[in-house]
Amino acid sequence: MSRVLTNPVVRLLFLLGILGLLILSVWEGTALKERISNVVFDTYITLKPRDPSDKLVFVDIDDLSLSKAGQWPWPRTYIAQVVRNIKEEGAAVIVFDGVLAEPDRTSPENIIPLLEEGNPAREALSSRESHDAVLARAIGDVGNFVAGFSYGSNPNPPQIKSGIRVKSDIKNFLLGQTGTGSIHFGTTAQFLPELQKNAAGNGSFMASAEQDAVIRRTGLVFHDGKALYPSLILETLRLYEEGGKELVQISDKEKYNNFKIDEAIVVEVGKYKIPLDAAGKMLVYYREFSGAESISAYEFLDQHYMRDDNKRLEGKIVFIASSAEGLNDLRATPLGMQPGVKVHMNALEQILQGKFLIRPFVANMLEVGAAIAVCLLIIVLSFFVNPLWLAAIAVVSSFGAFWASWYLFTEKGGLLDPVAPAIMVVFVFIASSILSFLKTEFERKQVRAAFGLYISPDFMKELTK
């Protein structure tokens, strides 16, 4: 066996075979490569999360709110109070991260059938306005409310508040994105028609996790096979930019942040340009939101509301959602478990800041190509130099890969995986070193066999060192 492996041709073919197997193992799309890259990029985000801004506020239907106002869902009159009072404090856009798909069970018209005939409360309730109508009027009055829709059982298409300008070839490409985890949807859960009608915006907040259940990307454009629909984030951005006068446009082959991303789709809303991957999704650059950036929703209920003359919400985008444990709206992110609304808040805030994460289409070719070059250098040199030199090459190249990857992430938002190339280099180095050792040992045995009968054991020992 040693004789075979020390043959130069066999040795070369063996090392090239190992290199080929490594290439197949770490090529884009393989389970191993995906796991490695996810760990690397999640670690980068954890080590250097995105910087905060002061443009977003989370109005939280938290456990305190539920203890004071009762279990969820609240009467729509309560939600109307919250919406009006948020607008009163100067909110630029009000975003509801949830669905009000069923009529309010506490509304007068739904209580009357539960009362006996002749009960005087029936007549009193019959003169009261529907709670859903109260909320619909509040939504219309504030003029900056964004409703949402998600996966559900309603076969009717959601209402579109503003069209998406897109060329037919790009539209057809996006409409072709189907399957689990794609931007395609069939039936939905959506706001009641009268609520949708009065909302200034209506977008999807559908979220799809990756195989390890972590949400790293979010869709900005969705489709039902016929039409394109904006996400909750895009609708919020549209209203925030010039009060909703700007159209959402989709194009391709745009320059962004010194990257030439020919393969990416670019969504434009006014001055904002957002790079998407070929699946119509954006990588989310997460950060932790502090407690100071959230306000308990009960503070905006009439019985608790104290108007802030400083208008603490002036010009801000306000998300209404829940972090209450009982409502169980938690999602896995690179920074750990977070309320689902934080995914959308992170995505919107990074757009406002212009801080994106981009993995170029050629990233995997660059990673594997660089690794192949170093591996071939190690393989060739392994026939001529000491393994210590090979170790130096492996260490320096791996360190360089990590440095370059970290620099691109921190300075450009580029995502290049240094671990997969480093693994290739290390494996090839180990294999080359082992074969070099076997070759040396085989040659020593040959020397012993040839001269062992003619010279002393001590001299033989010195000769074969």
Can you put this structure into words, describing what you see?
- With 465 residues, the protein is of the alpha/beta class.
- It folds into 2 domains: 2-46 and 360-463; 51-353, no CATH class.
- 44% of the residues lie in helices and 16% in strands.
- The chain is built from 16 helices and 19 strands.
- It has helices spanning 2-6, 8-26, 31-47, 63-69, 76-88, 108-111, 120-126, 131-142, 168-175, 193-198, 232-240, 340-353, 363-381, 387-412, 419-451, 457-463, and strands spanning 56-60, 93-96, 145-154, 164-166, 188-190, 201-204, 217-219, 221-223, 228-230, 248-252, 255-256, 259-260, 265-269, 272-276, 281-283, 294-296, 317-321, 330-333, 336-339.
- Strands 1, 2, 3, 5, 6, 16 and 17 form a 7-stranded mixed β-sheet that branches. The chain has a 4-stranded mixed β-sheet with strand order 4-10-13-14.
- Helix 5 runs parallel beside helix 8 (131-142) and helix 13 packs parallel to helix 15.
**Oligomeric composition of the shown chains:** single chain
Inertia-based shape: elongated
Largest sheet: 7 strands, mixed
The number of domains is: 2
What is the count of β-strands?
19
Bin the strand percentage: 15-25%
Q: What is this structure, in a nutshell?
A:
This protein is an alpha/beta fold and 465 residues long. It has helices at residues 2-6, 8-26, 31-47, 63-69, 76-88, 108-111, 120-126, 131-142, 168-175, 193-198, 232-240, 340-353, 363-381, 387-412, 419-451, 457-463; strands at residues 56-60, 93-96, 145-154, 164-166, 188-190, 201-204, 217-219, 221-223, 228-230, 248-252, 255-256, 259-260, 265-269, 272-276, 281-283, 294-296, 317-321, 330-333, 336-339.
